[in-house]
């Protein structure tokens, strides 16, 4: 029983950064913007979170720094694609390349340093309950944020007027503009929200998952988050499910390596990436369904005329 | 509070089309100067070390050619993809597979020597890269799968596959357990161009030839026209009878073959054996090269040399000033950002608008004052 609980806890820890980054990107894509810079914003959050936590000694300040750095970094993308109408694919790629370079440079002096770790929740009485105690009341704070975030985004997108407006912009920015909706302003806010989420996801990696700084420590998680949004057909609760499936794959291959299964460790390590490809194939196979679910103006630049 | 407003030009500006890479370069220099100043280094001295010292001697120009060759080869292939609006961002993986498949000859048949070895290796490299690129192409054409994500995921898979080979079945048994293959025999080594003055090898010639051939393809042949039509207007392309799926395969496999050629040239020319890491991110830097060169094969030659210089400069400032050589990747990222930003000027005029628009309101008052 204890082993099962431990495995479930590690799966949650592996799923949390994927979930947060994907939920942020989901809001961005629902507004009609494709930001391929998730990996870059995430690694900036990771280095910023680690750095601030290490220098101040407080992982909470690290957490705030991770969110702030992700948001500021995404602003770069917003100015380029929204104000200057640049190609979103290319700009997102360059955000990722810049983030990987910049974080490597910022983190040079952090390599090998012990970091600050966010403490797990510990409620006297509740956390000690067998089995469910640690699952429900004993995880890291970002886990709870990730669940709350998913519920909040679900509510925002489908139960509020602002959410409806955001989705309408994603489906047709020209119609939304004609109705007098401030398309660019909405998109700015969506992109910055996505950046803050990616930053938080990166912060989770360097403040909870492995409290240290390793170059390229995001290891493609930002790209997997992007794939999760497609997999989830732009629906928050499916992102939640997808993130936990991928968390399970990630943890499963680590456990398999630890057990010394007679399969090359490199093959096991490549499972999350191969799984991503398989999942994308399965979900995209039905062309009509994909077209129906995709925000119609996704990735197209918009220049308001007057 | 200022606001940017874009005003569409009636037609694309030829002036900015030519100027934008240069403006982008100047902006990168300015941003770089700020970066160096923040790091506490005199920017003038840093730039001297970064951009001038790495090309001040003949043997260093050879090093520049070695670094530029893969960037140009890959960038030229990617430009065809991006022109066709097909997003292959997995060139790094195709580069690695080209290196692996090409190296299979000297690693598995070390006794095989003679003039046939090298051409076979290069061919194998191209086939390996093209075959690996065919995977995302097949998935896109057959299952409608997003090629950006699949081609990128395959980069991680390729890196792990190479890692497994050099630590496992292909490890040199007499190599003291180092994760590397045997040293290639002499007939498997890409010859140097001018051994008297430096290390530059035939890879650079391949790059130039590829650039010219792709330039001819894109500007003088029907296939190039097809690429451009399908890229700018897929609907028009369909009416013209151009098959989008065939184009996906063509673009992916052409760029994959060139990336594979770059991979085997790098392994056989610059390294001489397989090791866990054979590329300092050439496949990703080549994306920048393609855009900086305006997706034009001849522009890409120039852009490849510039990016190669950023690599050498990064190494130079690391050894001279103790700054992390990651600074090179920051420069590359900034360069791409500014190029994309400047490209806006080709299609749009930019107007800065303040919240109050003084010019319009001030005019009548001037009349009154008179």
UniProtKB/TrEMBL annotation, chain A:
Q: Key word Repeat present in the record?
A: no
Q: What is its main location?
A: membrane
Q: Which domain of life is it from?
A: Bacteria
Q: How does it sit in the membrane?
A: Multi-pass membrane protein
Q: Which UniProt keywords apply?
A: Cell membrane, Membrane, Transmembrane, Transmembrane helix
Q: Answer whether the UniProt record assigns the keyword DNA repair to this protein.
A: no
Pfam families linked to this entry: BPD_transp_2
List the subcellular locations. Cell membrane
Residue ranges annotated as transmembrane are 6-28, 33-54, 60-82, 89-111, 141-158, 188-210, 216-234, 241-261, 267-283
Q: What is this protein called in UniProt? A: ABC transporter permease
User: Which species is this record about?
Assistant: Mesorhizobium ventifaucium
Instruction: Please spell out the taxonomic lineage of the organism that makes this protein.
Output: Bacteria, Pseudomonadati, Pseudomonadota, Alphaproteobacteria, Hyphomicrobiales
From TrEMBL, chain B:
Checking InterPro entries in the record gives: ABC_transp_permease (IPR001851)
To which species is this protein native?
Mesorhizobium ventifaucium
Tell me the protein's name. Answer: ABC transporter, permease protein
Q: How does it sit in the membrane?
A: Multi-pass membrane protein
User: What domain of life does the native source organism fall in?
Assistant: Bacteria
Sorted alphabetically, the keyword list is:
Cell membrane, Membrane, Transmembrane, Transmembrane helix
Instruction: Please list every transmembrane segment annotated in the UniProt record, as residue ranges.
Output: 21-44, 64-82, 94-112, 118-139, 148-166, 200-218, 239-264, 284-309, 330-350
Subcellular localization, per the record?
Cell membrane
Q: Matching CDD domains, A to Z? A: TM_PBP1_transp_TpRbsC_like
Write one Pfam family the protein is assigned to.
BPD_transp_2
Name the predominant localization: membrane
């Amino acid at each position: 029983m204890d082993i099962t609980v431990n495995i479930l806890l590690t799966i949650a820890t592996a799923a949390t950064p994927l979930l947060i980054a994907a939920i942020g990107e989901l809001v961005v894509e629902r507004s009609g913007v494709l930001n391929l810079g998730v990996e870059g914003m995430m690694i900036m959050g990771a280095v910023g979170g680690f750095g601030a936590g290490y220098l101040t000694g407080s992982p909470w300040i690290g957490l705030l720094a991770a969110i702030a750095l992700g948001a500021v970094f995404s602003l770069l993308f917003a100015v380029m694609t929204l104000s200057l109408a640049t190609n979103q694919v290319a700009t997102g790629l360059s955000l990722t390349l810049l983030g990987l370079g910049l974080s490597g440079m910022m983190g040079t002096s952090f390599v090998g340093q012990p970091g600050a770790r966010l403490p797990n929740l510990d409620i006297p009485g509740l956390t000690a309950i067998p089995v469910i105690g640690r699952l429900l009341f004993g995880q890291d704070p970002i886990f709870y944020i990730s669940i709350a975030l998913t519920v909040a985004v679900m509510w925002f997108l489908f139960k509020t007027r602002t959410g409806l407006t955001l989705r309408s912009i994603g489906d047709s920015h020209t119609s939304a503009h004609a109705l007098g909706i401030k398309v660019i302003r909405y998109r700015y806010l969506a992109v910055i929200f996505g950046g803050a989420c990616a930053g938080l996801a990166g912060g989770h990696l360097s403040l909870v998952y492995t409290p240290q700084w390793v170059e390229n420590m995001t290891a493609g998680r930002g790209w997997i988050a992007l794939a999760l949004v497609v997999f989830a057909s732009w629906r928050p609760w499916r992102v939640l499910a997808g993130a936990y499936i991928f968390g399970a794959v990630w943890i499963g291959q680590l456990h398999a390596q630890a057990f010394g299964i007679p399969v090359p460790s490199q093959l096991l390590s490549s499972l999350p990436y191969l799984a991503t490809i398989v999942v994308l194939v399965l979900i995209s196979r039905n062309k009509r369904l994909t077209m129906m679910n995709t925000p119609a103006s996704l990735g197209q630049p918009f220049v308001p005329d007057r | 509070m200022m606001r940017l407003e874009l005003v569409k030009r009636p037609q694309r500006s030829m002036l900015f089309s030519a100027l934008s890479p240069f403006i982008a370069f100047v902006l990168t220099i300015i941003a770089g100067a700020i970066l160096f100043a923040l790091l506490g280094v005199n920017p003038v001295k840093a730039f001297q070390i970064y951009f001038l010292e790495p090309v001040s001697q003949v043997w260093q120009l050879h090093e520049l050619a070695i670094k530029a060759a893969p960037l140009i080869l890959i960038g030229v292939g990617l430009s065809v993809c991006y022109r066709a609006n097909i997003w292959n961002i997995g060139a790094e993986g195709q580069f690695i597979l080209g290196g692996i498949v090409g190296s299979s000859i000297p690693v598995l048949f070390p006794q095989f020597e003679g003039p046939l070895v090298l051409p076979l290796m290069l061919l194998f490299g191209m086939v390996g890269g093209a075959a690996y690129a065919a995977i995302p192409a097949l998935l896109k054409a057959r299952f409608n799968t997003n090629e950006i994500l699949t081609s990128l995921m395959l980069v991680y898979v390729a890196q792990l596959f190479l890692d497994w080979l050099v630590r496992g079945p292909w490890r040199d048994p007499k190599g003291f357990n180092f994760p590397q293959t045997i040293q290639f025999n002499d007939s498997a080594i890409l010859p140097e161009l001018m051994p008297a003055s430096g290390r530059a090898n035939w890879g650079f010639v391949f790059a130039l030839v590829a650039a010219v051939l792709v330039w001819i393809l894109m500007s003088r042949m029907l296939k190039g026209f097809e690429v451009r039509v399908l890229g700018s207007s897929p609907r028009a392309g369909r009416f013209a009878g151009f098959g989008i799926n065939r184009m996906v395969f063509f673009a992916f496999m052409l760029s994959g073959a060139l990336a594979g050629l770059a991979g085997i040239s790098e392994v056989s020319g610059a390294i001489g054996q397989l090791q866990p890491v054979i590329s300092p991110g050439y496949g990703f830097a080549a994306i920048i090269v393609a855009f900086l060169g305006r997706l034009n094969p001849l522009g890409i030659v120039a852009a490849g040399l510039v990016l190669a210089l950023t690599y050498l400069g990064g190494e130079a400032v690391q050894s001279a000033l103790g700054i992390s050589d990651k600074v090179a990747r920051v420069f590359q990222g900034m360069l791409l950002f500014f190029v994309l930003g400047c490209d806006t000027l080709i299609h749009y005029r930019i107007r800065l608008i303040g919240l109050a628009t003084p010019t319009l309101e001030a005019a009548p008052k001037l009349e009154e004052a008179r």
